[in-house]
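haha ok so turns out i had the wrong file open the whole time. this is the CORRECT one, sorry everyone. sequence first:
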Amino acid sequence: MVRAAVLPAVNAPLEITEIELPAPGPGQVRVRLAAAGVCHSDLSLSNGTLKQPAPAVLGHEGAGTVTAVGEGVTGVAAGDRVILNWAPSCGGCHFCGLAEPWLCANAGTAAATPYARRGDGTDLYPGLGTAAFAEETVVPAHAALPLPAGVPLTDAALLGCAVLTGWGAVHHSARVRAGESVAVLGVGGVGLATLQAARIAGAGPVVAVDVSPEKEELARAAGATEFVVAGEDTAKRIRKLTGGVGADVAVECVGRADTIRTAWSATRRGGRTTVVGIGGQDEKVAFSALEIFYFGRTLAGCVYGNSDPARDLPVIAEHVRSGAFDLSALVTDRIGLDGIPAAFEAMVAGKGGRALVVF
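then structure:
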């Protein structure tokens, strides 16, 4: 039996309880979690914005130590330190064949398959296939990536989502070049990772935008050179801070129609707008046909940072080891399992950076 935060149904309160976790089957590994980040996607799963069978154990940003492996597993062994990959690519679908593993058609298979049971025998599903809001979990072997040497295990949990997403938004989706101006809308965990990635890319100025003025210190520590409290004139203020023309790149990390529209309006003619935030189906963004022609901007979605973890983790790890990328700077709260509901409330209120569940 292991302790876990169980979502009994969509929009129901989380229950901290013990669950029955089986031994790993063929092609699976069991992992003892060291830490798990509380991501906005977990909140979106809990309220139905993103679909997830329930009852479920949420949590998809985690790191820990392999305690057992199932038949046929060769890539990792008991005792190995690993990062959980919530979107493991199958290697055989159309998108994997295009070298776009972040769009893998089969990445979500594990999330729809029961992996454990409640004490009453009810099947439990793993949130985004990983179920990291638990002391231990069982995942497909290809969802457990070896942790590069020299990266602290607890903070390494952030590599599983926030850091890969923010890093990839800058380096893969927007392809930020040294000297380009960047605006980052939303200073949560992903936004803070995006700011650090923009700084490492040599961007400047780097403008951070958030509804909370209390986040200015966090944003500047991550690499922002300017900070704007969100309001009706946000796009105008970003243009003023970027030579009057707008940012070369704007990265939206909120997932709201109004902030996506603001990011677009704050981008210069010919610039790039990258949307990282996950919004609901009822969030509609409107553009006129004339402005699409006139401004010549690129608007792109960004899934998991358009990242290939096997390629990107060693690169990011080198920046962590050198001190250029500070994982701990993303974390504003270190909590236990029972602190997850409060972390959800803080995200809704726009407070703090990343909350990290430490086991």
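The chain has a mean pLDDT of 95.
again sry for the mixup
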